[in-house]
Amino acid sequence: MIKIKVPATSANLSVGFDCMGMAVNQYAYFTFQNNSKWLTINGCPKKFQNENNLVYKAFIKGCRVLKQPVPNVKITIQTEVPVSRGLGSSATCIVGGLKGAFEWFHHPISKQKLTQLAATMEGHPDNVAPAIYGGVCMAFNNQNDQVHVVKYPVNSIWKFLAIVPDFKISTQEARTVLPEQLSYQDATFQISHCLLMTHAIQGKRFSTLKEAMQDQMHEPFRKHLIKGYDQVKTITDQMHGILYISGSGSTLMLITNNVNDRQKIAKTIQNQFKKWQVKPISIDSNG
Ligand code: HSE
Fold first, then answer.
1. Separation between Cα atoms, residue 159 and residue 165, nearest integer Å
2. In this protein, which residues make up the domain named GHMP kinase N-terminal (predicted)?
3. Which pairing describes strands 20-34 and 39-42: parallel, antiparallel, or unpaired?
4. Would you say 190 and 16 are in contact if contact means Cβ atoms under 8 Å apart?
5. What pLDDT does residue 194 have?
6. pTM
7. CB neighbours of 63 closer than 8 A, spacing ≥ 6?
8. Using CA atoms, how far apart are residues 15 and 122, in angstroms rounded to an integer?
9. Which atom of ligand 1 lies at the shortest distance from residue 19's CA?
10. Which residue, among 248, 270, 266, has the nearest Cα to 256 in the 3D structure?
11. Which of 9, 124, 213, 271 is the residue whose CA sits 20 to 30 A from 30?
12. 35: helix, coil or strand?
């Protein structure tokens, strides 16, 4: 039996739209076993227990890349990563399925090659790269369409809180609300803030990270999709926190520089949003 563990991820890190992401300590587990039937999938809703399941699609892709026949397989999914909440659940499925195929055929695969395959399936590399490398990663496709990944050190002072609403947002839908073009002025704003962010997360200065995490590229266009965003933003601004939309939402990620502030903010938000999950999380550094 093959067992694969893949971490959840929080993409964009505010200003790194489609190129930055962070692995966190929530996990999806996938097992792959010989099966007498051609396909059995357990551990997910019935409507996903068929050949359109993303884990299975990625498994097939892995077999094809290896030029191997697709074996009869039983896939079991056990996941802590909520679906369509901006925590990279589809990236866990893609990475899990691909890794499963490569392990099935005892074929080692480099992290770079795995990221390349996974990013092609996902359409953007900012979830799959940290899911594979761990930590905070920057990832993009270069001019030869090769994925390039850089992992950044993160100062241990930063504490994270995942604020997970009780509703889903589809990434596809959240991409349709984005404008088609960006002015030079906005591009310059975004590049400078993203550079500042990669510097600030390595350091300890709250004010620098807060200044850096002011996205102009997607959050202004998406925040209306998250009912409660403005209230949470007001609370975090008043209580010494930094807030960004995790991936395309609905999760909001809060950053503080000490656990006491994190606890106070968590309590305040949980009091106002009783049905939401508000949970402290940490970075997964291994992928
Ligand atoms: N970068 C992607 C987006 C992440 O914001 O649409 C989706 O999880």
1. 20
2. 53-135
3. unpaired
4. no
5. 98
6. 0.95
7. 69, 70, 71, 101, 104, 105
8. 20
9. 1
10. 266
11. 124
12. coil
ipTM of the complex: 0.98
Atom 6, ligand 1: residue with shortest CA distance:
248
C-alpha span between 62 and 59 (Å, rounded): 5
CA angle in degrees (0–180, nearest 5) for 181-184-189: 105
Q: What letter would DSSP give residue 45?
A: -
Residue with CA closest to ligand 1 atom 7: 247
Phi, psi of 83 (to 5 degrees): -80, 140
For ligand 1, mutation pick of 170, 176, 248, 253 (most atoms within 8 Å of CB) = 248
Q: Helix, strand or coil for residue 250?
A: coil
DSSP at 48? G
Considering only CA atoms, which residue is closest to atom 1 of ligand 1? 18
State the distance between the two ends of the chain, measured CA to CA, in whole angstroms. 21
- Strand-pairing partners, residue 140, are 148
For ligand 1, atom 4, name the residue with the nearest CA.
247
How far apart CA 95 and CA 115 sit, in angstroms, is 8
CB 190 within 8 A of CB 215: yes
Cβ atoms of residues 158 and 242 within 8 Å: no
Answer yes or no: is pLDDT of 143 > 90: no
Distance (Å, rounded) from C-alpha 203 to C-alpha 75?
42
Binding site membership of 18 for ligand 1 (Cβ less than 6 Å)? yes
Closest CA to 19 of 142, 131, 135, 125: 125
pLDDT category at 128 given cuts 50, 70, 90 is very high
Tokens 């079991």: give the residue: 76
Structure tokens at 199: 């510097």
Q: Measure 126 CA to ligand 1 centroid, in angstroms.
A: 7
Look-up: residue for tokens 């390595």? 202
Q: How far apart are CA 258 and CA 263, in angstroms?
A: 9
